[in-house]
């Protein structure tokens, strides 16, 4: 991603009952005040900086179990 841009990271999780979805950064916190997660579980990072580079994890959890997916963001 280009510094200063907005990045969208998608996470598709479905089930019955619907799983709870959470995003986190593997080493560190999501950028405070510069991120949001929408209804479709897409993580948006605003005005990205070099500090935002790293591995992001989407975790979906329900009574049936837990599944996770990772992606790496390069700035």
Automatic annotation (TrEMBL):
Keywords for this protein: Cell membrane, Disulfide bond, Glycoprotein, Immunoglobulin domain, Membrane, Repeat
A single cellular component GO annotation: plasma membrane
Superkingdom, natural source: Eukaryota
Protein's cellular compartments: Cell membrane
Chief localisation class: membrane
GO molecular function, one term: cell-cell adhesion mediator activity
SMART domains: IG, IGc2
Any Pfam family matching the protein: I-set
GO annotation terms (biological process): axon guidance; dendrite self-avoidance; homophilic cell adhesion via plasma membrane adhesion molecules
Ranges for region Disordered: 1-21
Keyword Membrane: yes
Keyword Repeat attributed: yes
Stretches assigned to the Ig-like domain: 1-75
Gene3D superfamilies per UniProt: Immunoglobulins
InterPro entries: Ig-like_dom, Ig-like_dom_sf, Ig-like_fold, Ig_I-set, Ig_sub, Ig_sub2
Protein name (database record): ROBO1 protein
Annotated organism of origin: Hypocryptadius cinnamomeus
Gene name as annotated: Robo1_0
